[in-house]
Amino acid sequence: MPEEGMEDNKEGEERPKWNNKAEYLLTCIGFAVGLGNVWRFPYLCQIYGGGAFLIPYLIALVFQGLPLLYLELAIGQRLRMGSIGVWNSISPYLGGVGVASMLVSFCVSLFYNTIVAWVLWYLFNSFQEPLPWSQCPLNHNNTGYVEECVESTPVNYFWYRQTLNITPNMETSGSLQWWMVVSLATAWSIVYICFVRGIETIGKAVYVTATFPYLVLTIFLVRALTLPGAYEGLIYLFTPDWEILKNPQVWLDAATQIFFSLSVAFGGLISFSSYNSQKNNCEKDAVLVGVINSATSIYASIPIFAILGFKAHTNYVTCLNGNILALTNEFDISDMNITVENYEQWFDSLNGTHPSRVSDLKLKTCDLQTFLDQSASGTGLAFIVFTEAVISMPGSQVWAVLFFIMLFSLGLSSMFGNLEGILTPLHDLKLVPKWMPNELFTAIICLLLFLMALIFCLGSGNYWLEIFNSYVGSVPFLIIAFFEIIAVAYIYGIGRFSDDLEFMTGHRPNIFWKVCWLVISPLMLFVVLVAYVAVQAQTPPTYAAWNPDYVNFPNTEVLPYPDWVFAICVLLSSVPVISIPLVAIYRLICCMSGRHSKDSLHNNPNPYANEDYVVELLL
Amino acid sequence: MRCLRMLVRILVLLYLAGAPALAQTLCQPNASNGYRVRISIKTALGNQAYEWNENEMFLFRATMAFAMRRYYKTETYNVDNIIVCNQTRRVSFWFVVISPENPTMLIPKADVEKAVSMSRHRINNAFLLTDRTLEFLGIYPTLAEPVNPDTPPWLIVFGVVIGAVFAGIIALLVSSLLQKRRKEKGMMEDGQDEEDRQMKGVENGINLDGIYNRGFTDDDRFTKL
Question: Considering only alpha carbons, which residue of chain A is nearest residue B158?
């Protein structure tokens, strides 16, 4: 039975507490609901047969996501420490899991806040008339538009040249882009101001950052449904293609999506729940957070796809109008006699009477389906596709500002969890000198992260960010989560864990949770991990480079990673997780050498020596 | 005498009758010194589109005469100097400009282009059209100068945001510093009371303060004999 003494910390210092339950829940929801809910889930839904994708997604949520979530919230709340302290308590040999969590949170914070900095850059630029990505700038002597912009599109040019100033390949690093450094400094300053007083200020900030995205999504939903082409986009998104369920790739992507979406294995959720009182029903919290996260994903895809449908419709009409103009000019037909509606009839009659002249015009084939198929995910969706759609909407500045503030709120609330996963373990490891106030320590960590993130402000920064995203933000998490669940289910013991849960929530976990923790979730995690690594190993390590001198510009050039870059990729994947076996070996060595010194103690047993007492408490 | 006068009158009449015919031959599609004009009224104005008729054509010739006057800075050009031909229902037509001094001489293409470019804005506005809907094929519209403000707008927004954030950080740091000082002052005053109580505590023989250390068992006081 757990002793009452576990309520207080060993130093007698009071652990910070949440002001109320709402702040805690909003922080967890804000951490889980991030940019991926808006720009990854709708894309997956679209390419994997619309409504049919929901089936593997919900299955993965119920059997993998919710048990992991419940597990993390429960151990954080019970053991009242950050990730390193928690895993040290469960088993000293598995303390490496906490270290790995912290290292991975560190790496993710680096590139995630850079994305937030990009969002801020676009937000600052949305306060202009006309929007800077709506037209090409003039070249030096004002004779024409910049060639790179004319060959691609103004939106692409603004993203690749005026925002990133991207280099043609990874070997060329380019220089620091000062406007990016400025945006990055703003992003880190805003993160710092929310972290100044720890969860006291975070708890206030999440009232805005966690709720504002829903408001904006609703506004976009109402606006988007009134735009032409919205229904085509929605039908395209949600039309289920049941055949796709036979493809194992779909199940793999659903499992990875739910896993990364819930932000488990960061250590942030453990830290947040450690500030709770122990008598809190974390089962309800876990189910609530998981369900709201998935519901947000589904809710967000509706306005996103309505707007993408509108964009496809606009592109289709523009394409047709180009053809109509060509035909009108060639055959001197009265202005506006050919319209979008009767284009087909006119085309057929003209092609019948003057086929050679019509073919000389080189008319484009305009197909709405092709435009709908041009989907994108990630930064491509937000900074290229969506910005293009916004230009065509009346009142573009308002929609651009709203959209980027929403992305900013989503990114900021996720950054809270990322940074918390670094700060709390460092506090619990007592690596903070006594004389240093918390505010100064947080400032030092933020400054350190800002300086390290300056690599993403170089010309080749986007390529490095993609590497971090694919190699750090994927396999290490799967490994950490797998060890987490094995540690709690088998090493800590499901019986002891059920006792703890009974102490906290008032009732023992039912058979569903036990079966999931013992069998289903570890198995699913293992299968997903192996399959993911296998798929990654099969795809050649290449990246898409933006090279204006490329033959097929504006298509991106597919280049292989240089060897030294590939070595860095492998290091990024393995170094965080290498701490798990390293710490285990270290503890093993310490324990074996420690046993020799302990034998001398046992010769003169002193029942009042505190070390024995401490040993009894932990094991 | 009378015969001479009649001859002169016949010659003048012939000349006057022949002049337009001569002028018509000057205006041909693909003429070397002519330009083709293409007008899309319905595209530009939609519901408020006006119909293209002879009056509108008269206005066009008058505007072109205006453009030539403005370019050469003379007042010799008239509506008659602008010849129009080959009108289609698109609406498109060809036009040439003849010199007011010599009706058989055409103004060169380059000069006409410069005149049109100089007064393009006025010509467009006369017809409520734009560069795209009133096309002079071969004369490219000069690109609009982009509005370049002295300070880029994004810097202004950034300045406001970063100023607010730094002000907030300083405010929060100062307030937490003040809070800590207040706590320390409070604890120092409590510390005085604690010392007094500790003196009394020792007298009673029971330690009331501090954390009860369960590591120590009480049987230490009474040794087993």
Answer: A124
